[in-house]
Design goal:
Chain lengths: 118, 118, 118, 118, 118, 118
């Protein structure tokens, strides 16, 4: 699934879920969004926190989502690889397959950013 | 992988595994089946327990299996979404990608049920 | 830590956390409480869902909390042991140490219930 | 909790659990015991498998149990530390606190073995 | 176990582990230390990454270690609570018992810092 | 993804990751490789340890990697199924979907070994 397909699926299913009449799920989704807003820590730092948490918990879709957000916040590859190194050391070699997919996704994001600038 | 393919793969590989001469694995599979039978708790409740456990442990195939069983037991969407809300609050946003796939699968199951009734 | 000490610590620290000026944490705590209220599924069933999720995720304090709530809801030992069996089969032998502590805690809860009736 | 207390608690609660009238839990306990018996792999190797699985899943009681069994099987400290190194690399730094407690427990086991020989 | 006891145990067992003749474990410990040094991301940010990873993986000792380091780096309570909120939303209510212990530990650290300044 | 595609992706992304200028990640990869070399335990045993750890942590790519290595070390199907049985009993039914994919992969590996011998 490429990045466009990932986004389309994510948006379509999020809409489907929020349509269902379940208040707790809706509140959770709203809370999830607010958590990464600027506060004592800026969004940039919070997105890195979300990324490292997603990596050690080994959730590819969560990693993709936070990588996109990190790229939007202007975080550099060098900063991202240092975040990857924390995830790898904390979470162990079991993180490596997710790291491979994360780096492939990051390259895809950078190509889209480069294309968008052309 | 659609539901039919999931089932075909599951049945084929379960058969392949049970053919192998390993008594512990066979006993585990037998025990797994018995665990959801009616007892002090009915199958319906036990399938909801299996579903929520599968969601917080983030196992898509286990979620699919229990969703199919829940639908067979006549559990409503509203009851399933409340089960999803418990999984989401207990397990956190890391459950969301599995929730999206679960809801897509549920819609597929409901379509098959509707088709079967036609 | 016996049940009284657990409760005292839980209440004291929850109060301490909610005093801190963090809106997301407060909202999460509120949402957590609401999730187990009667809906399409009754509180009884939802507490069993919370219990099995806590067991497969292997969180002793969460197990204690839901055991207390299950006992308050009048759930029987036989129903609790069937919930334990689902957790054990889904989560594997790694759940056993938590099961031992859960059963010890359940016996403590039943003694308090018996004492309270005296 | 020292090793004697651990064993006493483990045996007492296992007996309590098996007394309860739940067939699935009893079968699981029986299956758990059989899994480590000699087969194509010897008990020695299977206990090392049980140990490394317990370490990456970060279950102190399971680690203690398998360390005791490994010591009974005559597995050396050097072999155990290599097993620890696999757990550490696979599971990451999150395993370190469990490694510290495992090594403390191993030293306790070795002292008991030495004392028993006196 | 208070903070002094935690530190004493941690240092004693780390020394015991590094004395054992296992090169991979030693290299892992060295690598673990280097990962949090200043780079493209500063130590401050990396310690927050280590903290959030420890919380979602629910490792109390790792949380204590990173809280101490965060306090040494001058990170404020407000920043720490925002890190807690990310861990809570990503990891779910299963994180709450660790959050309670984290906040208790943080209060202990702040008292020691205040005492040291006296 | 068949085995050839898995290997091609793995090698290409590992090369991409090691090209990035991050010393900690490179050191982790080097350490990961060394951990399975002959020592007090032989490579054969260590690969079984890596396999069981990968199964209980439910990482399909890690399972594939260790299955290939186990096959190269001449480990028999009977030994592998006993390793699977330990993973299943320790990790629970949540391991079953990974077991199905592991056995399918093992059959693919055996076919390649048989073809390579023709």
């Amino acid at each position: 699934m490429d990045l466009r397909e990932f986004r389309e699926f994510r948006e379509r299913m999020n809409a489907r879920i929020l349509e269902a009449d379940n208040l707790e799920i809706r509140r959770f989704f709203a809370l999830d969004g607010r958590t990464y807003e600027d506060g004592a820590l800026d969004t940039r730092t919070k997105e890195l926190l979300g990324l490292v948490a997603s990596m050690v918990l080994r959730c590819d879709d969560c990693i993709t989502y936070h990588l996109v957000r990190c790229a939007e916040e202007g975080i550099s590859d060098e900063e991202l690889f240092e975040t990857f190194s924390v995830a790898l050391v904390v979470g162990g070699s079991i993180v490596i397959p997710h790291l491979r997919r994360a780096v492939e996704r990051l390259d895809e994001i950078r190509q889209m950013q480069a294309g968008g600038a052309g």
